[in-house]
Amino acid sequence: MSQRIKAVIADDEPILRAHLKMMLEAAWPDLDIVGQAADGEEALMLVEAFSPQVVFLDISMPGIDGLEVSRQLCEHAQPPYVVFITAYDAHAVVAFENQAIDYLLKPIEESRLERTVERLQKLVLQQSPDLNQKAQLSEMFEELIGTTQAAATSSHLKWIKASKNNELHVVNTSDIEYFIADNKYTEVHTATDTYLIKTAVTALESELDPEVFWRIHRNCIVKVERIQRVTKDELGHVYIDLKDSSDRLAVSRKYQSLFKQM
Question: What is the model's pTM?
Answer without folding.
Answer: 0.55
